[in-house]
Amino acid sequence: MDITGKKLFVKALREEGVDTLFAYPGGMITDVLDELYRLGDGIRLILPRHEQALAHEAEGYARETGKPGVCLVTSGPGATNTVTAITDAFYDSVPLVVFTGQVPLGLIGNDSFQEVDIVGMVRGVTKYAVTVRDRSKLGTIIKKAFQIATSGKPGPVLIDLPKNIQLENGPSDYSTEPLDIRGYKPNTNVHIGQLKRASRLLKVAARPIILAGGGVNLAGAGPALEAFSEKSHIPIVTTVMGKGAVRTEHPYYIGNGGMHGRYAANIAVHRADLILSIGCRFNDRITGDLNEFSPKSKIIHIDIDPASISRNVVVDVPIVGDAKMALEKLNEWAEEKDTTDWMKQIRKWDAEHPLTMSRNHGMTPQMIMEGINEVYKDAKTTYLTDVGQHQMYAAQYIDIDENKKFFTSGGLGTMGYGFPAAIGAKIADPDREVVCITGDGGFQMNM
């Protein structure tokens, strides 16, 4: 039975389990929106007031649920307004599926009204971007997009939908079965031989440290990380994107490292003789001068993305695979280490250079964070920040336990991210407390 492209679009979204669509109407997507109105039962339509905020809301939804955030915008400025949020999602590994309207195929290349080569613009900041040029392939392209967005290292994808493709009739080529996509078969099964090498190094290290990045959160590996640390007595430092993977009160948690991290965390990484890095990309915010970064340590690097390993820091034991799987296997082999002297030294550094809070000069940002901790200490809470000084205060002072999450714009550092992302997180889980910590600059970018 033949169906139109717009009907196939709605059918595919429903089959992919989409329950929320972030959209902004425009001329090149009106037919799809009409079809959603007629056939889209079960798909909630969220209509923000700007496409960048729309895509940030989809980011917040995706990070809260672990499902792709799905966007629908019109051509031209509607499409280009999403580029910052798409780039933000790319750097922070957030699964987004962005559908953009486009002028009919016959008008592409004619400088038509609101025509823009959005695929060319985002190719470097998406996992997959394509203009649909053949109605008979629409269903397969949509299936492929969802699969790529969520496989391996998650990220954004973009499908450009010309107007005529939306209206053409044809058979449905959409299949609920997973596609065999060349080049998108991530290796999640960790190499046992490499893990054994890592385990041997961990057992003989005198000053080991775990450096946990955002990949730990993406893999849901926080509990496995805590269990491994408790069994092996190895201290943990997190990046800003790794915040939330470990409880603040965990006995071996030192704090955030990097440019705005705790002194003890940074000096521990610098003085370590072995770093076990998990889901960390070693960007400049965590390493500082690469030539001076932890000069006497050997490095084990676990990451789902092979391109991230040895990109910035040369490692001794590269391990490509799922962080949770790797940690669970390491925990099987782990032995209790005597890190008493090492932990005493780290705690001494922390006591000598603590995070300080003046109470003699009126209200301070640190006091506000302390108050937030007190108000929400017993609540299931998602904290989101914008970008700026408040972001660093939040990363340093906001407490995390098993009922807390912490989301921020880490890689791109996008001002204007926090408030719409918080809205998206609340839409995803209305019963959960959602707290947006923002500054005047970031907040006003959404006015």
Structure description:
- Strands 3-2-4-5-7-6 form a six-stranded parallel sheet, sandwiched between helices.
- Helix 1 packs across helix 2 (30-39) and helix 11 runs parallel beside helix 14 (323-333).
- Strand 15, helix 17 and strand 16 (404-407) form a beta-alpha-beta unit.
- The termini are far apart.
- By secondary structure, the chain is an alpha/beta fold.
- The chain contains 19 helices and 17 strands.
- The radius of gyration is 23 Å and the shape is globular.
Write the layout of secondary structure elements.
Blueprint: E1 3-4, H1 5-15, E2 20-23, H2 30-39, E3 44-46, H3 51-65, E4 69-73, H4 77-80, H5 83-92, E5 96-102, H6 118-122, E6 128-131, H7 138-150, E7 156-162, H8 163-167, E8 169-170, H9 192-204, E9 208-212, H10 214-218, H11 222-232, E10 236-238, E11 253-256, H12 263-271, E12 274-278, H13 284-287, E13 298-303, E14 317-320, H14 323-333, H15 340-352, H16 365-375, E15 381-385, H17 389-397, E16 404-407, H18 418-428, E17 433-437, H19 440-444
Parallel strand pairs: 2-3, 2-4, 4-5, 5-7, 6-7, 9-10, 9-12, 10-11, 12-13, 13-14, 15-16, 15-17
Antiparallel strand pairs: 1-8
